[in-house]
Amino acid sequence: RYSSMKDYLSELDKETKKALETFYGFSEGKSKVRRSADEWNSTESDFFKQIPLLKFEDFSRTATDLRSGQKRKIEGSVFHKDSSIVNSGDSNDIIGFQLCDANNSSECALYTFSSGVNAIQEWYKLHYMNIMAQIPLETKERLSYSADDLLLTCFFDGLSCDKRHFTRFHHPLHGNCYTFNSGANGTILSTSTGGSEYGLQVVLYIDEADYNPFLVTSTGAKIMVHDQDEYPFIEDIGTEIETAAATSIGMHFTRSRKLSKPYSDCTETGADIPVENLYNKSYSLQICLHSCFQKAMVDSCGCAQYAQPLPAGAEYCNYKKNPNWMYCYYRLHEKFVKEQLGCQQICKDACSFKEWALTTSIAQWPSTVSEDWMLRVLSWDKGQKINKKLNKTDLANLMVFYKDLNERFISENPANTLVILLSNFGGQLGLWMSCSVVCVIEIVEVFFIDSLSIVMRRQWQKAKKWWNDRKRDQSGKPPQAGDPERQGHNNPMCVDEDLPTFNTALRLPLPQDNPLPRTPPPNYSTLRLETAFTEQLPDTLEVGQH
């Protein structure tokens, strides 16, 4: 609430109004007459000491200091903060500010803007962060809007809801924000029917009169749909809703999953990323990038940037304790944008993520015929805390709902797995070479397994012969004919070193001593057939022994 922060921002607001009056002739309650530089308040401001506002002459390095009115040459690198900067033909539109290294005054950087609005807002934002960094968190939460202040009516799934269903978290720039159905109390609400009547319906109190005029230039509210374990980067991807209107947001839920290594360079949980998660939420690319920049800020500048979570053991930057932080921050941010800080190379996309596709429609609210009674009733309900009648520009009607309850799941599958690769390989072999898996196995067996078996067998025979010869030499005994090692294929008469075949084994000489028992010859007389012939035929006569 701007009214609660005025005591902290009074000097900054005063200097901002002086800058507007000097530069544009803006004066509250007075005619818009440009002041001369001599009429500037002689009291030097700490805000202008830290970041002097400058007006440039024809895009040259000659600038006029708005505090002193003196012209001077500007040294240092020039950075255009507006990407669409063009020469509008009026050099008075170009203003900016200069940041110098507190330890080396010759090291300066000049930041210019194509619009005075952007320059004033950026200048105000820097000093605003300096002031807010010195205020305790409990005080800032107390000075911001409560859930009772923000909510006028609330319905979910056709039932009434209240502040107990909203969880507060403090945003460094926006103040208190509230999450519906965060699950912080252990209960997550669900809906079983799609459509606007079964979603979330709230009427928000937008106190436009209590807005900070220099920090925020639009009226309304920002919302974001996210999962319970995701951090809401509402300043990056938030959806703005306007006052005096009913905003309907229909959602389609999509769950996506990408393949990790070796198919892509994503990370499952972020545990393999050497960057500390400062947000205490599930990993995302934005969390990694912001955490990486904050760590680099603490390492390089000695303090943390106010718009991001505070690392352990660090403190937020302010020019009382860290007079050089602004120059250091802009230099570091320049490297970050140009991907020279290394964060973009370290941080990876998450393999699993959830998305809500939003479809927004807007209608005038309240209608002309219902405006009178509705504003009276809402003012009566809110009258216990405010002492004014509400008008429609103070209210915003929001409806968030699922269009349908179909969950879309998008997943990646490998185009070729090992099974598919082998199947394709076998199919090509069968098509072009008439070769099957059995044929391939036989080829492998012949060329590899059999060859290896032959080689190993030869080596085994050589090793065994060497071992037997060594034992015989150690014993000093000549080989005996009856030794088992002289029998069979170990007989020295066997010239061939290969295993004996059946024919070569028959040609081996028998041992002289201890002949082995032999199988007796068959009794051929038992094989003689009794014939009916009385006389023996001539060709069957027995031949005598010679």
TrEMBL record:
Organism expressing this protein natively: Crotophaga sulcirostris
The record's family statement is: Belongs to the amiloride-sensitive sodium channel (TC 1.A.6) family. SCNN1G subfamily.
The UniProt GO MF terms for this protein read: ligand-gated sodium channel activity
Q: Which InterPro entries match?
A: ENaC, ENaC_chordates, ENaC_CS
Q: Where is the composition biased (Pro residues)?
A: 512-523
Its GO CC terms are:
apical plasma membrane; sodium channel complex
Output the superkingdom of the source species. Answer: Eukaryota
Q: Which gene encodes it?
A: Scnn1g
Location of this chain's protein in the cell: Apical cell membrane
Pfam families attached to this UniProt entry: ASC (PF00858)
Catalysed conversion reaction? Na(+)(in) = Na(+)(out)
Q: Which PANTHER family match?
A: AMILORIDE-SENSITIVE SODIUM CHANNEL SUBUNIT GAMMA, AMILORIDE-SENSITIVE SODIUM CHANNEL-RELATED
Classify the protein's membrane topology as the record does: Multi-pass membrane protein
The name on file for this protein is SCNNG protein
Q: State the UniProt keywords alphabetically.
A: Cell membrane, Disulfide bond, Ion channel, Ion transport, Membrane, Sodium, Sodium channel, Sodium transport, Transmembrane, Transmembrane helix, Transport
Start and end residues of each stretch annotated as Disordered: 467-527
